[in-house]
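WARN retry 2 of 3 for item q-0093 after timeout on previous attempt; input resubmitted unchanged.
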Amino acid sequence: MVVRLSDFFDPATLQRARDYARRDLVQSVDELENGVFEGRVSNGQGKVYRQSIDLENSRRKANVAGICSCPVGFNCKHVAAALLVWSERESNPHGQGKTGLPRPVQGWLNQVVEHRAVPRQTASESPDGYPDSVKDRLLYVLDPLDSGVKIDIYKGRINAA
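OK item q-0093 returned
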């Protein structure tokens, strides 16, 4: 089924939805029956909204009716993000993004790239760039494997002594 999302969502909503999909905030989207979907999309701050989406496709035209538990409630960015992820998954059934990496890995790497710009440090700042009150650190190790990329994440604590 081909549905032009731009017929049902304004450009700002679609832009936000693409950002949610790219940041891997769509936790799940499943087709329950022909044209009926259920999704779960995070707002990026710990709140998860549920979507119930009905795609009707008649001979005359397609229709998107998406109900969401967010304050907007109908055909919001969460509904559009869920549909974008479902569409991408349907076009690439092996669960890999455009780069060949699994979607969660690609989403994480996109976030790393977005936040890699580090402000210049002054001589008095610590080399880590963290305030003294922050003791936890996150260490990630990228391991290239024959079948792709393996990412191991470790949490550590700085010993003040």
